[in-house]
Amino acid sequence: MREVFLEKVTVNICVGNDKQGMVKAEKLLSKLTGKTPVKNSAKRRLATWQIRPGLPIGYKVTLRDEDAAKFLKWVLDSKGKTLNSSSLDQTGNFSLGFQEYLELNGMKYDADIGIMGFEVMATFARSGFRIKKRNMRPAKIPHRHKVTKEEVIKLLEKDFGVKVK
After folding, report:
1. Domain range for 91
2. What is the pLDDT of residues 119-148, one digit of tens each?
């Protein structure tokens, strides 16, 4: 019950109110992950960016199990197997941003997509976390059972060979 594991990796691209950007974002996420992306919709109104609730503003893909571990190894290897400790939050989740998809190892320029960035979020958990998401009698997770930053750092060093500065 105390073993920490990688729950999911979420890859996200937000383009705002740009129809051509939405098409490019969908192509890029399909190319990177091999999965079908899901639309993200705006939750509130931002008049300066011409965004209103319900308007599609980006795409995301959620990877789990072996796909998540394989993609995260590729991303961390492309970043030089280093990670800033400020990238991790207190519950051990972290995110990385890429200004261009060309920063990934083995990626070639695609004229249909152009230059586009994305962000990667990794979420860690341990057995028993399902109780907070279940439909019947959801419950809170005790503080002693939550994942800590130090446990995730140990997991990253052991399983992924990452140095955390």
Report:
1. 4-164
2. 999 999 988 888 888 999 999 988 888 888
Q: β-pairing, 94-98 with 82-83?
A: unpaired
Handedness of CA 98, 99, 102, 107 (dihedral sign): positive
- The CATH number assigned to the domain holding 40 equals 3.30.1440.10
Beta carbons within 10 angstroms of residue 146's beta carbon: 14
- Evaluated on CA atoms 30, 32, 38, 43, the torsion sign reads negative
At 71, phi and psi to the nearest 5? -65, -40
What stretch of H or E contains 164? Answer: strand 163-164
Taking the C-alpha atoms of residue 38 and residue 64, their distance in angstroms, rounded to an integer, is 15
Specify the pLDDT at position 132: 86
Q: Which residues of the chain have pLDDT under 50?
A: none
